[in-house]
Design goal:
Blueprint: H1 2-15, E1 21-24, H2 37-45, E2 50-57, E3 63-65, H3 77-80, E4 86-89, E5 95-98, H4 106-109, H5 130-137, E6 142-147, H6 150-155, H7 160-170, E7 177-178, E8 181-182, E9 186-188, H8 191-200, E10 206-210, H9 215-218, H10 221-228, E11 233-236, H11 238-243, H12 246-253, E12 257-258, H13 271-287, E13 292-295
Parallel strand pairs: 1-2, 1-13, 2-6, 9-10, 10-11, 11-12
Antiparallel strand pairs: 2-3, 4-5, 7-8
Helix pairs in contact: 2-5
Length: about 300
């Protein structure tokens, strides 16, 4: 009985936070290369309530922090491993070379430069493991992991949901809190994965991310009621809320928190551009009543 009460309290805290929270999107990714220790450290320095980690698995079963399924956009993998690409149709239908992270061991991934693509001053930054991110963030802020393409990994025989559950258990994070909030908040665009997380980790809040393609299903009244059966929050693209602000009240009525993505400035934005995004965030938080939001610019979050 006592555990049931604790679980209910954690879920209630996730749906009705005492104040809106800031999620540093891929770390402070407006100022440092996404998903690096540099970006996560800066996010903490800029006062993030949560630091986001996108998660995938190496070929030897280690969770690493990487937004894309593949390595070529944010590392020098093409130079270091030119013969390891998979050739497949690109968006334009033409053959494209892809270096899937799940085809590489952790040792191989740790040789890659994950910083130079952003700015030469970050040369030598490495892709962190999830456990390295936990070691840095735990106790200072919450973690907000997103499972990337879990169905694709599942189809390869990789149980990414169980891997995440195991790491959280190892580090005592399944029902932990930090600064009065749940210490971990899980998320995915794939409802099947969020449903599995609800079974594996019932004490951990869970966000169903929603893009334009899936909005008609999940943002309708029936969809919100269904989402509530396995998620504690929805994370719509901010444009969906801008187009129909009533989404926030409707989700709250269904018992779901609302955490939209992503608020960002252009790199090197002037004072006017920075104030514009700060005002945008304030409008969502104060006027529209969202419970938290994702931003590349944690320093601009209105307190």
């Amino acid at each position: 009985m006592r555990r049931a009460v604790v679980l209910m309290a954690l879920v209630a805290a996730a749906v009705s936070p005492s104040r809106p929270f800031l999620v540093a999107h891929r770390g402070a990714s407006g100022y440092a290369p996404e998903h690096t220790i540099a970006a996560y450290t800066l996010a903490l320095e800029q006062g993030a309530d949560y630091v986001e980690q996108d998660l995938t698995l190496t070929s030897d079963g280690v969770l690493v922090c990487l937004h894309d399924d593949t390595l070529e956009r944010t590392t020098d993998v093409e130079t270091r491993f030119p013969d390891r690409a998979v050739v497949e149709p690109g968006p334009d239908g033409q053959p494209a070379r892809r270096w899937y992270a799940n085809d590489f061991t952790l040792a191989e991934i740790k040789t890659l430069d994950a910083g130079s693509w952003f700015d030469p001053t970050f040369a030598g930054e490495r892709i962190p493991t999830f456990e390295e991110a936990i070691a840095l963030v735990k106790g200072k802020a919450g973690l907000f992991p997103e499972l990337k393409s879990p169905a694709r990994l599942n189809a390869r025989g990789v149980d990414v949901e169980q891997a995440v559950a195991d790491v959280l258990a190892k580090h005592g994070l399944r029902d932990a809190q930090v600064k009065g909030r749940p210490a971990v908040y899980l998320q995915s665009f794939e409802d099947r994965s969020v449903r599995r997380l609800a079974t594996l980790l019932p004490a951990v809040p869970r966000t169903l991310l929603i893009g334009a393609k899936d909005a008609p299903r999940w943002l309708a009244p029936d969809g919100l009621r269904e989402a509530k059966t396995f998620a504690t929050a929805i994370g719509p693209a901010r444009g969906l809320i801008e187009a129909r602000p009533a989404i926030v009240a409707e989700a709250h009525a269904a018992g779901l928190a609302v955490v939209p993505y992503t608020f960002r400035t252009a790199r090197g934005a002037d004072a006017g551009g920075r104030e514009a995004i700060r005002a945008d965030m304030r409008r969502f938080l104060v006027d529209l009543g969202v419970d938290g939001l994702f931003t590349d610019n944690p320093d601009l979050f209105p307190r």
